């Protein structure tokens, strides 16, 4: 008798749990269509011709660029900056491919080969190679996040971003008057515990290899501090901090940094969702720093540019972002003025990146 009532109790408990779980839903699955009815201004093309300063085309030396041009024209992207130009022969070929087939439409940045840091003549060679690459048509230098993460010297030690052994490279970029676009670290949430308090939980759940720790390869604050020391030390070199320097969620902090470091610009590749959740603060920031911001996107998915245009240009409310793992929240447009839009779409890039044909853009 006693064991029977115990079984009944267990059964009731089971039914109760089942009922509860059927009322739960997967976080990714819950994405109800909005019932909000407001004015919409969807656009798949930018209001002004623009220069995307953060793009990667690894096959540029041999690829048919016509495929890119078709999509670029649809977006109103006049000039694409390919940051993955490498160096030496392949850089030369990439530049030639662009100049020969679509003059004015492609700009190529060089990359540094960090193998051999610590060798006595490494820096001199690297600086000389950069000079050679610029002679062959490179208009800037791109530094990947591997510097800080995985680049090691000849003794197997992590090379810090502000390692003085790299100084001749930054000095050479300054001397050649080319900008250095540098990506350091990743969103801070990648270093934080992966739990209910982490805004990038879904990104870490779907991309487990993005999770980091203080020993992999250093704490977030350390990497960012190294980057800022580099910027301060080489005040005669123009740097573009990729992804808003990972401070798009703290524009006050970014203001302080930009005030302190007049040689630094920012681009908003992959962080438009941060701006789209604070349209008033972002508008104030863009208005104040209208000469310091460049248009960047990073991953080449033409359909995703629409979100960028809508956040920058319109005052639309509560519209979806294109990737839930970047933003489980909705977007609001910043409604930037034409004057500010022109600066971030092309005027600032024309000012700091040499060799872009200005006649392609309005005044
Ligand atoms: Zn990139």
Give an overview of the whole structure.
The mean pLDDT is 95. Helix content is 39%, strand content 9%. It has 363 residues and is α/β, with parallel strands linked by helices. The structure holds zinc ion (ZN).
Tags for this entry?
13 helices; six-stranded parallel beta sheet; three-stranded parallel beta sheet; about 375 residues; binds zinc ion; alpha/beta; 9 strands
How much strand content do the residues show? 5-15%
General shape: globular
User: What is the H-and-E element order?
Assistant: HEHEHEEHEHHEHHEHEHHEHH
Individual helix count: 13
Ions, cofactors and other bound molecules: zinc ion
Question: How are strands sequenced across the largest beta sheet?
Answer: 4-5-6-7-8-9
Structural category is alpha/beta
What's the assembly state of these chains? single chain
Query: Which whole number gives the mean pLDDT?
Result: 95
The level of helicity is 25-40%
Low-confidence runs: none
How many DSSP-defined strands? 9
Distance between the termini: 91 Å
Largest sheet: 6 strands, parallel
* Rg (CA only): 24 Å
């Amino acid at each position: 008798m006693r064991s029977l009532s115990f079984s009944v109790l267990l059964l009731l408990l089971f039914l109760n749990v089942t009922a509860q779980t059927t009322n739960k839903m997967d976080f990714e699955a819950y994405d109800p269509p909005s019932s909000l009815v407001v004015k919409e201004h969807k656009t798949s093309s930018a209001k002004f011709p623009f220069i995307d300063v953060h793009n990667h085309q690894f096959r540029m030396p041999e690829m048919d660029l016509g495929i890119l041009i078709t999509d670029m024209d649809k977006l109103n992207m006049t000039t694409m900056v390919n940051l993955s130009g490498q160096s030496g022969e392949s850089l030369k070929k990439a530049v030639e491919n662009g100049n020969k087939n679509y003059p004015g439409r492609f700009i190529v940045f060089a990359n540094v080969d960090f193998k051999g840091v610590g060798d006595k003549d490494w820096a001199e060679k690297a600086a000389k190679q950069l000079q050679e690459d610029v002679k062959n048509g490179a208009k800037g230098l791109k530094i990947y996040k591997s510097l800080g993460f995985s680049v090691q010297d000849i003794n197997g030690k992590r090379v810090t971003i502000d390692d003085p052994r790299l100084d001749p490279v930054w000095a050479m970029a300054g001397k050649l008057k080319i900008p250095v676009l540098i990506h350091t670290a990743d969103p801070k949430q990648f270093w934080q515990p992966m739990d209910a308090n982490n805004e990038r939980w879904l990104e870490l759940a779907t991309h487990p290899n993005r999770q980091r720790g203080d020993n992999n390869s250093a704490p977030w604050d350390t990497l960012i501090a190294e980057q800022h020391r580099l910027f301060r030390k080489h005040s005669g070199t123009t740097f573009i901090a990729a992804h808003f320097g990972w401070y798009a969620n703290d524009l006050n902090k970014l203001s302080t940094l930009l005030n302190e470091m007049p040689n630094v610009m920012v681009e908003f590749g992959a962080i438009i969702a941060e701006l789209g959740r604070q349209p008033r603060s972002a508008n104030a920031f863009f208005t104040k720093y209208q000469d310091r911001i460049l248009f960047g996107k990073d991953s080449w998915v033409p359909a995703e540019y629409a979100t960028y245009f809508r956040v920058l240009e319109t005052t639309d409310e509560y519209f979806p972002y294109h990737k839930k793992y970047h933003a489980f929240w909705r977007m609001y447009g910043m409604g930037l003025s034409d004057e500010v839009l022109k600066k971030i779409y092309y005027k600032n890039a024309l000012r700091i990146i040499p060799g872009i044909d200005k006649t392609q853009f309005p005044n």
